Amino acid sequence: MAKETYEVIVVGGGVAGCFAAATAAAEGASVVQLERKPREQGGYIACGDAMKAPRDSKKYPGPIDMGAIADDDDVLINGNIDQIEWRDEELGVRKVLPYEDNSNVIDRYEFGQRLLDQTAALGVDQHFDTVVNDVTQDGRVTGVEAVRDGEPVTYEGDVLIDAAGAQSIIQEMVDFEALDTPGAATFEEPHYTHFGSAYREIIETPEPVEYENAIVGKPLEEMGYIWYFPRTPTEINVGLGFQMNKEPIPLADRLKQDIQNRPEYRGARVAEKFDKKDKLGAAIALRRPLDSMVAPGYLAAGGAAGTTHSITGKGIRGAAFSGYSAGRTAAMAVEDGDLSEYGLWEHNRWLYREHGEAAMLASRDAYNVAGSTIDVNILRAVAALLPEEEIRDIVGTETNVADLKSKALVGAGVIKNLISEYRSDTFEQLGVSKEELYESVTGVIETRKYVRSYEDIYSRYPEDRGTFENWLSERNRLDSDFYDALDLAPEEQKY
Ligand SMILES: Cc1cc2nc3c(=O)[nH]c(=O)nc-3n(C[C@H](O)[C@H](O)[C@H](O)COP(=O)(O)OP(=O)(O)OC[C@H]3O[C@@H](n4cnc5c(N)ncnc54)[C@H](O)[C@@H]3O)c2cc1C
Fold it and tell me: Which keywords does UniProt give here (predicted)?
């Protein structure tokens, strides 16, 4: 059997894999990137294609030149998105939240292709048509077994970066308990209820839509949403997603039904230039980032590490920064010769402490946990009632101190007044009583307190492996308090 040796092996040719491989190579490591798809389909994936401010280098760290990608007209399809809209048209509700300037609906295929080009240019060996089907380990993860162009190949390496997406099977192949860890293995394998299922098409409309500067979401009968993300005023990425702990929804049929009932989509059809290959569905991670994304010789990034926003399902940026972090840590560990959990802990530290967005995503997941306990009609009524800043706190990933102060204003008294003013026919239409609504809105305020407590705990995420178990006990105590507040039986608890 053919054998190849590299310092860093990256599985996955998506956003996380490219950021990881490019960063490790730029830091001086020898890197191979393995992708099961052929080159011409690399980086191609089911996606709503909405992406925040690609020119902002703080959001996209590392050697990948996002500015150059964003300047490419084939990638940057709609750079004028400046708002998010929540529309519950049945109820006459429209909430408008500001979105960062220069945000985009991109062409995901062209974007993926440019990422792969840049990654190769930074010195990464890319092996396409290469399916990883096993992991080798000996105290630490030592490499993978793969089939490349139909031939078996063994890849040996110092560090394996698992960037194989939300449906990564790499984690199932590693026997984490058998690795040389100082205490118990810290790596936590996700459960299927932590995922969502999503599907999209790209359609052409005869007339321009009036929301060409907005990414639009609207409710679904289960926890999830339908989206309309305009690439151009007449070319719309439409899709839907829901969480897998709910009743399954036939996604393509449900989307068709929605499109057929929208006046602006009368006469719309799947865009010819995209045809059937752009009707795509996939799993999506809707959980908090893994408590620890490292094991001896192993790092997880992107969908495989749960760095997706569990309410909105947005994961491009999380994949970029976690990929960067994994690549940087892998190169450092190779240079230091320490491939243990201690040596690789920097990946967790950077994401949770220094960069901090993993902490933000993990804290916001409390809204997903609480939302899953509420009937979807009550959720709709709550969304109709909540002030826009409050919704922004739930769907956003960035908060500054000034924001926090203003959010503290939305307290129980204010909500009581809002409910008394709100049209009762709206609630009746949903079959939601004022009492139920009041209880649920109070629940949101209560959940927000827990979000702040999670933020506090994650701000103290361990700097090194040594104190992880103590920190984890504290975090798990907060989980228990939160579940008690929500009155959740053990089988209903997300983690
Ligand atoms: C329908 C849908 C809509 C979405 N909309 C948005 C959006 O609008 N905005 C946003 O920011 N995020 C969105 N997301 C989420 C976002 O697409 C993901 O979070 C992101 O793509 C994750 O990137 P990744 O690199 O971790 O994984 P992926 O992009 O999934 O890449 C993983 C790669 O690994 C390869 N691979 C897997 N297993 C193996 C193996 N055994 N051997 C070799 N190769 C393997 C796969 O072929 C794939 O190319 C959406 C997701 C879905 C499903």
Answer: FAD, Flavoprotein, Lipid biosynthesis, Lipid metabolism, Oxidoreductase, Phospholipid biosynthesis, Phospholipid metabolism
> Does the pLDDT of residue 208 top 60, yes or no?
yes
Q: Under CATH, what is the fold of the domain 79-102+193-285?
A: D-Amino Acid Oxidase; Chain A, domain 2 (3.30.9)
pLDDT digits (tens, 9 = 90+) for 330-362: 999 999 999 999 999 999 999 999 999 899 999
- Probe residue for ligand 1, chosen from 10, 19, 36 as the CB with the greatest number of ligand atoms within 8 Å: 36
Minimal-distance CA residue to ligand 1 atom 41: 132
The predicted pLDDT at position 59 comes to 75
Calculate mean pLDDT across residues 148-172.
96
Cβ distance 195 to 241 under 8 Å? no
DSSP helix, strand, coil percent of the chain (3-state; round to 5): 40, 25, 35
- Tell me the CA–centroid distance for residue 16 and ligand 1, in Å: 8
Residues in contact with ligand 1 (CB, 6 Å cut-off): 11-17, 34-37, 45-51, 131-132, 163-165, 169, 198-200, 239, 282, 284, 302-304, 308, 313-316, 319
pLDDT digits (tens, 9 = 90+) for 220-240: 988 889 999 999 999 999 999
Residues present in the chain in total: 495
User: Which residue's CA is the closest to the ligand 1 atom numbered 7?
Assistant: 48
The segment(s) of the chain belonging to CATH 3.30.9.10 are: 79-102+193-285
Structure token pair of residue 405: 């102060």
The Å distance, Cα 77 to ligand 1 centre, comes to: 20
Long-range contacts of the stretch 390-394 (C-beta < 8 A, 24+): 390/444, 391/86, 391/95, 391/97, 392/97, 393/448, 393/451, 394/311, 394/364, 394/367
CATH class of the domain whose range is 2-78+108-191+286-356: alpha beta
- Which residues of the chain form CATH 3.50.50.60? 2-78+108-191+286-356
